[in-house]
Design goal:
about 280 residues, mainly alpha, 3-stranded antiparallel β-sheet, two-stranded antiparallel sheet, 5 strands, globular
Length: about 280
């Protein structure tokens, strides 16, 4: 018996993009429901939990139930195990649903709590505390590089787009192979090379800045001075019309609104925010 035809990178990528659009729609609908029921204070307090629950709800009705996601159905691909012959087990689908819903958020939350615990620990020696905080900061900074590096590998061989599916061993086959052409997608290999080049440049720049920062200040502290705390992280000047994001970071009113025109994430913590959630702080100095 012949093995099913493995899905190509174009089909997998289109499915991921389609699912992201639908996930954003589900998250907005759930967020609006929470806002109407509990108000803004409840939404601000539990916004990450709301995001995770809405994602898990989507994957519960699709992947966990043994059905295709709407993105997979859109591109006619089906999840299988590494043999390309069997449907993933319930445990595999459950791990995928949990990881896709809360994996990155859970990891960031753990690192942030660990950073706060180390910073507030009065029994650690200063030198050891600085090393611990540095390791945590470097780990948080390396997470985006690791994800983009994995995407570069996907662009080259077209097998696993999600890191968790590579670990668990879940691939895709075409449910209707006659709809796709087995052509050599050299464009994806070029994209892989460009991504790796960009990562190399960004990594070199990050390492250079980190070495420069620690060589200039041999005893860095993690407390923010009153002067730097009044500066906007975007324009690096004293804040004007100080405004607060739902995640608690302060910016100039015009700086953050201009940023959100092209990016829907907080520049500091990368939390998803909407322009209408920015709150101007009156009489704040």
């Amino acid at each position: 018996m012949s093995v099913f035809v493995a899905a190509g990178p174009a089909e997998i990528l289109r499915a991921v993009q389609k699912d992201r659009i639908l996930l954003d729609l589900v998250e907005k609908q759930v967020a609006e429901l929470v806002l109407k029921i509990g108000g803004t204070a409840v939404w601000l307090r539990y916004r990450q939990i709301v995001q995770v629950c809405s994602r898990f709800l989507y994957y519960s009705f699709t992947t966990l139930s043994g059905f295709q996601t709407l993105g997979e159905e859109y591109t006619n691909i089906v999840e299988v195990d590494v043999t390309l012959k069997r449907i993933p087990t319930f445990l595999q689908r459950l791990l995928v649903a949990i990881a896709e819903s809360a994996g990155f958020t859970f990891l960031e939350t753990i690192l942030n709590k660990l950073h706060r615990k180390v910073s507030e620990n009065c029994h650690m020696q200063d030198d050891f505390k600085r090393k611990m905080l540095t390791c945590i900061d470097v780990t948080k900074s390396m997470l985006p590089f690791l994800i983009h590096f994995h995407h570069a590998i996907f662009y080259w061989n077209g097998t696993y787009y999600d890191m968790v599916k590579r670990i668990i061993g879940i691939r895709y086959i075409r449910s209707k192979p006659w709809l796709s052409k087995d052509s050599k997608l050299y464009g994806f290999k070029i994209l892989s090379a460009i991504t790796l080049l960009h990562l190399s440049i960004s990594g070199t720049h990050f390492v250079h800045n980190w070495i420069t920062k620690h060589s200039v200040n041999e005893t860095p502290t993690y407390t923010v001075s009153s002067k730097s705390s009044s500066n906007c992280p975007l324009c690096l000047e004293s804040r004007t019309n100080t405004s607060c994001t739902p995640c608690g970071h302060l910016y100039c009113w015009y700086c953050i609104l201009n940023w959100l025109q092209t990016n829907n994430q907080c520049p500091i913590c990368r939390d998803i925010i909407e322009p209408n959630r920015i709150v101007p702080l009156l009489n704040y100095y």
